[in-house]
Amino acid sequence: MRAGPERVVLRKGNGLNLICLPFAGGSARSFARLTTYVGEDWNVTAVQPPAGFAAGECGLDALSHFYLGLLAEDLCGPGIVLGHSLGAAVAHRMAQLRSATWPGNLHVVLSAPPAPGIASGELLRLDDWALLAEATRSGMLPDLGISEDFALRFLLPGLRNDLAVLGTRGWQPDPVSAPVHLLGGTEDTTCPAATLELLREALNPMSCRQVEGGHMYVLEQPDLAAGALLDIADGINTVPAAVAAIQLCNCATSLA
Description:
- This protein has a seven-stranded mixed sheet, with helices on both faces.
- The longest helix has 17 residues, at 222-238.
- By secondary structure, it is α/β, with parallel strands linked by helices.
- It has ten helices and seven strands.
- The protein is globular and about 45 Å long.
C-alpha cells in the first residue's frame, strides 16, 4: 500500500516549475520516467496522495485544498501544473479555489481528464475483482506486469480511495482564469476525442492536443507526453501573462 501524503522532488533545477498531480491509484513516482524527458533545468515536484480521508471529508474540494497547502511554495511561475486523469480534475479545482492569486504564468495542463459530471459511485459499488477488471479494461490502471493478487492488495485500496474524490457529482469543468491546456491520447477510450472536444467548448483552453497512446501515455509514452509539455513551455516563455489569460482556444492539432 502506498505511503503518503508527501511532496516529492523528482528533480531540482533552476528553470521552469513542473508540478505533477497523479491519477487515481497513482503516486508521485508515477512521473519519474516523464521527468527524464523534460528540460534538464526544470524543477519537477510531484505529490504522493493521502492514504485516506476521514469519513465525511472525501471530495474534490478537500483534496484540492490539501494539495494547495502541501504545494504552497511550489505554485509559482513560470511553470506547469500537470494533472493526469483524476489529477486533472484536482488541478482544475485548485485553480478555481485560488483564482484571485493564481500566477498568470503558471499554466494548468489537464491531461486525460475525466468526463464532466461523471460520478464514481457505480465503480465503487463493484467488488474488488470487478473493479480491477474494469480499471484494467478501461486503461485506468497501467499495465505493470504484476499479478492480480498483488494488484488487489496494493493497488486497489489507493484506487478506491482516489475514485471516491469524485463523489456523487463528478467534476464540473467551469471556466477558470488560469491559462489552461488540454492533453489526451489518441487511443484513450476513457478520455476520447469527444470528451476533449466537450471540455474545449467548456474551458476555452489555450491549446488542446493529442499524443499517441492510451489513457496512461504519461507512463507508457513519457517521451511524447514530455514533448507536448515542452511545446507548452515554449508558449509560457514567449506569451505575456496578460495575453495568455485572455487568449482564445488554439487547438495545436485537430482532434481525431
